[in-house]
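Q: For a teaching session next week I want to show students how multiple molecules come together into a single three-dimensional assembly. I've collected the sequence lines for a complex. Could you give me the predicted structure tokens for the whole thing so I can convert them for display?
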Amino acid sequence: MLALDPRSYGNEKSAASLMEEVLILLLGCISNRGYKLTFESPKNDKLALFQHGERAFDHILLLPQKSKGTSSPANVDDFGLPNPGLGPALTPKLLVQFINQNGNILLTLSADYPTPTSISSLLLELDIHLPPDRDSLVVDHFNYDAASASEKHDVLLLPQGSRLRSDVKDYFGGDGTIAFPRAVAQELGNSNPLLAPVLRAKSTAYSYNPKDEADVVEDPFAVGEQISLVSSMQARNSARFTVFGSAEALENKWFDGKVKSVDGKDCKTANREFAKQIAAWTFMELGALKVGRVEHHLSSITGDAAGNDSVAQLGYLNPTIYRVKNEVTFNIEISEYSYDHLSHLKIDPSDALQLEITMLSPYHRLNLIPISQTPNSTTFSSTFKLPDQHGIFSFRVNYKRPFLTNVDIKREVTVRHFAHDEWPRSWEISAGWVWIAGVWITIAGWVAFVGIWLWSEPAYEQSKGKKMQ
Amino acid sequence: MRLSRQLLSFLLVIYAASISVAATWGFEDATVSVNKKGAGVGGGFKEKIGENKALSKPIALGASETLKILLTTKEDNKAKRPHQAFLLVKDPQSNLDTSFAFQVKENGKGKIELTQKDLPAQLLSSTGPLDASLVIASFGSTKPYSVKAFDLAVELDSGSPLPSSEKPLRYGKLPQIHHIFKSDPNSPPKIITLIFTAAVVAALPVLLGAWISLGANLNHFSTAFSSSPIPHALFFCSILAIEGVFFKYYTSWNLFQTLPPAFGIGLVTFLSGSRALREVQGRRLAGLR
Amino acid sequence: MAVEVLEPFLKGDTGRNTRGLLRLIILCTIAAAAVASRLFSVIRTWHPLGRVTGGTLYPGLMVTSGIIYHVLRLLSMPVDIRNICVLLAPGFSGLTAFASYLITSEMTTSPSAGLLAAVFMGITPGYISRSVAGSYDNEAIAIFLLVFTFFLWIKSVKNGSAMWGALTALFYGYMVSAWGGYVFITNLLPLHTFVLICMGRYSPRLYVSYSTWFSLGTLASMQVPFVGFLPIRSSDHMSALGVFGLLQLVAFVEFIRQQVPNKQFQTLLRGLIFVVFVVSMGVLVLLTVSGVIAPWSGRFYSLWDTGYAKIHIPIIASVSEHQPTAWPAFFFDLNLMIWLFPAGVYMCFQHLKDEHVFVVIYAVLASYFAGVMVRLMLTLTPVVCIAAALAISSILDTYLVADNPIPTETQSNGQATGDSVKSATNMIKDSLRSTRNPVLGIYSYISKASVVGAVTTYLLLFVLHCTWVTSNAYSSPSVVLASKLPDGSQHIIDDYREAYYWLRQNTPDKAKIMSWWDYGYQIGGMADRPTLVDNNTWNNTHIATVGKAMSSREEVSYPILRQHDVDYVLVVFGGLLGYSGDDINKFLWMVRISEGIWPDEINERNYFTARGEYRVDDEATPTMRNSLMYKMSYYNYNALFPAGQAQDRVRGSKLPAEGPQLSTLEEAFTSENWIIRIYKVKDLDNVGRDHASAVAFDKGNKKKKTAKRRGARVLRVE
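A: Of course. Below is the structure for the complete assembly, covering every listed component.
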């Protein structure tokens, strides 16, 4: 196993590793960006993922481990079980806890090395299913490397990059061909929205157990495009977990290897680029969003005035209370991290950053439009009229997309009703004129009456005043 | 899309035919039949499938029917069991696919039975017919076979509810919502308002006229002012002032600005009013009113 | 002998002044006593009424305290507004005593009756219950306004004065701004007028006072935003409007009768009036049916049919104050007055002037209402005090005269005090035979002494009772519970404050707390956290939502909690201490209220066992045991006891051996005596599992590997 720690440079501590070759190559892609590497065998007693309750590492790369007999003495199973776990430091519970504390894990599997039970039960928790038989591997008689696996067909050749959905950003794209030797199939549960397959097999592929199903396969574990060869899981806290179905694909042999397709064409593998993409994505160098300023204010106050007249200066920014039917402008600034710098976020036209104005249920759901852009960020904006319902509303930008870190920004504001002096005045309502006239006529009549009462002389013997009494 | 795929398979067929040098996988004696449960053996639909060509008509699969395919797989025209003998069912709209493995004996005789229960819910709820292909392949260099065999039209039982094919939660864009505001209250046509307002305003002249015709006058003005000028002046002015305060309240003041002057003027009204009215009472008692 | 010494002071002009002074001093003492008796109570729940929406409460209380605050500030007396709020109710109770003195003095010529009424009003537990220091509630000022409005009304009916009528309307408007119970006045005054008309007592005085009150009062009441247009649109107010119309008709007829003394014409007119009345009633009914006029409010229906609320508006029935009154409550709250009350009412029949008719009507209505709802005991109290004071004063006036009665003395006595009343008295002829005979008096000193002694004893006992009730029942704060230890020392149970303090210290400022609405104000006031529902019952659906969340399974409740952004849930559990006012005992109301809105999802029957018992032990129904409320109450409760010994001391039942499991909530806080339990609502699982399996995983239960697939595959769709 390998743990990566980008917090300091150098000081590499290397321990017994089974596939150093793989490591070096993979790390060639990523280590020049300043990760501090620690190599540990799971059997190491001192290995601990947590120190004082905090994560000791930022990322973990788990490599397959030889089971007994085939590996160095250090890996002989201490407990005598055929398929050992990963030891007390790497129980599924601790790994889930590692994810819950924002740690990223890149897990590689190989059909040659049986997957430990602790790994498969961890995957089961995440709704990723591995073949029940540990030796199962994926073959495709239609897409294999004719050069190296002309007989066994277990080195799959797959085109790089097909988009998951048309509205999802493509981080794993490219034109090359990936060689995928001795892969372990994964099947993803349908109900979990946090999962996303990165690389899927072709429809003619299937997974079989070379021991039990050597002659014919009659009930394959997984078939066709449902076979995920590289799967990703992004937790709700945006921690990333990637299952890489073939550790051998990261070996030197395939990084810059040459392969021959079934129809006889030679081509170079794109494994290096793909590995770089996978590692970068898993270790938060791709698809990580950063929210900058989040502002909202009355639209009547122009936001672009500078200096003392600016919205912020006047104190009109982000008020906690609005009135119903106010015109409000909401701005949010988002950057996307790309390998080593923040860049502006570009959203595909088929996708949209959406703002919800919610109280129990959304009253508005509006697309935010990019209004300005700096090299490092994009500002999205929307102007809307608050609903005619008072209460505590939240302005919520809930941008969850596959492969992008979750953005869930919520700003609570109180929306009050009209104050008594904010309604239109009575004379502005034409229907009120009758009543207003009535009031003033009554007043005039009353004043006249007072005058007459005070100063009128009786016209007749039987005076009017008496009658009125 | 569909066309290109068919074209592709067509080309593949040509290709396979042209390079007959390489060994290929194939099959013979393939029949597909659809039987209703309980019905006799020969009751349902039955058709032969030829190698490298699809049936022209889609095959309908009802709710209680069983689709059955029998075939013999061959490698280079020799009956042999391949490692992979699948019926690949694909929804051309959603691009979802799944495969069903044949039960193939050593001698290459394969059989598959399929009912609606075996199909995934997502495929069952597809609106168009599904593509069913036969995939026969194995290890080694023999060329694999994968050609569309027929269209499979799933006929759901209208009585039973659709299998739960509710789309699971996936994060993505949601439809926009725009709040529908309550409409503003309406006023009646202005002309009606004006007519009624005029009627109300006309009431004052009518009232004054009626009073005058009944003999109202201000003849005692001088009497009143000569006997007690200050109370009368104050009383009448304070009444006017109260109306003025009321007007200010109506137009600009708030309650707390209104109340102090109103109280003050009210006091003046009360004090001067009692004097003034006492004077009026004096006149009345004197028989002058 | 003392009488002789006092003689010069009690007779003639000096006598009148002395008596006046004496009366004033007595009144002040009563007021002071009334205030003082309320001060020895510990502050009850302190919760200023505050809500986001301003148009849904009666502003009178807050405006009053605000005005007092500003006036005191103006007089350079910097008193904290909090102190004003605390002392507002006792202060107003002093005014109430004064008002009842005034109104009783209008009833009788005897000066002692008013003073007695003031005393009664000052110390009766029925009123103290609502006006101890710190009970900052609408009723605190409303009862004073009620009594004073009635006094002004009596005054205006007696004098036929537009000024008194206007004053009545003014205080009526104040009353409207202060308490929803103003509807009582809105209906009582028209009823009084109506009865007077029916008795043939129509007079221009009645016309002037009623018309003034109605027109000005209606306008005044419409100024209160919460009331708005109700006075012209709701059935509750229609009787006032109807009587107003009737009065105009009657006045018109009277006018015509004076002009045209034609017998046949009058009959015709009578018929006409009848027809007009019937037609207008018909229009009223039609408008009500068509919905222009709002139908009677639910609370009003529950006054006529005590079972109505339980079926149709459980939310009203769920409040303990809205339950029908138990008969001991009358004795508890009113003591000796309850049996003096009929005597007083009888004495009103003896005179039966306009004002006595009013007391009689008031007595009848208020007695009925007090029987229907505990809360309305409050409206009964003033009239009971008045009637009892009339009775006692008449006894004392008769027996507490040292001199032998001389037939003329009563006459002169009446002359001395009843100047203002006299003219009015003469206008109405004595209608009952008993009043025609002059009252002579008692000659025997023994009977005088014994009766006076007995009455004095009763009065002393009354004072004793009032003191006892006040100190025991109405002075204990509801947030702090006190219990006696076996050795007699007092043990304070302070769980509420402990829990609210915990909330205040340990939760984010904006954390939303869900609890049953009884605790809304306390959480808002003492923990300073927003709550979903509070003690104001204006949004039935919202309360029902909380009820549904409490009474449903976790899987149903959790989305509701999420939707409402709930961070913490607070429940009150008395099982450990035997505190019976806990949420499990209120639970059925939550179920009923939410059943009213979601009859398909919640069914009260499911919470009862097959034999119709409400149980929490092994035999509790699955619905009950799966409800969030049950789970939150008994979560981890087993751990306090040896295995299988868990006991609920309120319900007196042994709990199931295995306690409930919670997966969507986690226990955040439990107070010392387990009275308050606070749970934190968990976030969605970080890696997308459902809560139950996440909890199982944390407990170390391995997920079973997916067994051999059965049926069709499930494809993953992107």
